[in-house]
Amino acid sequence: MTTPVTETSHHHARRGRPTLLAAAVDAVVVAVWFAVAGALGALVWWQVTTLPTLTRAGDSASQGSDQLVNQVGIDGWFFVVAAVGGLLSGIILLAWRRRDPLLMVVLVALGGALASWVMVRAGLELGPEPELTALRDLAEGDEVSMQLKLQATGMTWIWSVAATLGALLQMWVLTKPADEQS
User: Fold this and answer.
1) Partners of 56 in the beta sheet?
2) Angle, helix 20-48 to helix 158-169, in steps of 10 degrees
3) What residue spans of 56-176 are helical by DSSP H?
4) What is the Cβ-side half-sphere exposure of residue 118, based on CA atoms within 13 angstroms?
5) Is 9 a residue whose pLDDT tops 60?
6) For 15-43, how does the pLDDT look when each residue is reduced to its tens digit (9 = 90+)?
7) Which of 14, 63, 94, 116 could bond to 167 as cystine, CB 3.0-4.6 Å?
């Protein structure tokens, strides 16, 4: 005894499998989300960071020991903004686009890299010009702010790690079993 394939059962089978078009839509949604998140992250990073200063001393520049705290603060604030932005992005995107969780985890990890790149590039644009260029035009003893630039380049991974963690948290902890079946 065979069961005839009806239009509704065929439609249900097709809906259960992600299509290439649906995956492409998810990829575009994630890319736009993280590009915007990276730009907003750069604005926040720029606003909360106190930039260290260099003082012109003859043909070179010096930095007071009190300015080292501000220099470390550039990386520290990047970490905070990227960790919060990545974690929230991973949770929200996986809750919103949960048709194919495995694909979304991969897209969220890649999207975190995009957000990090946008945040670093925008930070350079928002911050002052390179210190060496600015110092040329200054008199002895004048100060110039350093660029909004990461010293610890490994911090660029924070967006991806936090976004992946957020997606996994959404998938394994925040999603109730009843939510997955509906």
Assistant:
1) 61
2) 120
3) 65-96, 101-126, 131-136, 158-169
4) 25
5) no
6) 555 588 888 999 999 999 999 999 999 99
7) 94
N-term to C-term CA, the chain? 30
Alpha carbon 152 to its chain centroid, in Å, reads: 16
Residue 178: predicted pLDDT: 58
**SS3 assignment, position 88:** helix
Both structure tokens of 89: 């992005």
More confident residue, 145 or 18: 145
Which structure tokens are listed for 158? 């924070």
d(CA 91, CA 97): 10
Give me the phi and psi of 123, to 5 degrees please. -60, -40
Q: Helix, strand, coil proportions of the chain in percent (round to 5)? A: 70, 5, 25
**């106190």: which residue's tokens?**
50
* 174 token code pair: 């925040």
- Flag whether pLDDT at 129 surpasses 80: no
Long-range contacts of 63-72 (CB under 8 A, 24+ apart): 71/146, 71/151
Backbone angles phi, psi at 32, to 5 degrees: -65, -45
Tokens of 177: 């079993």
Distance CA(2)–CA(159), nearest Å, equals 52
Cα–Cα distance, 26 to 44 (Å, whole number): 26
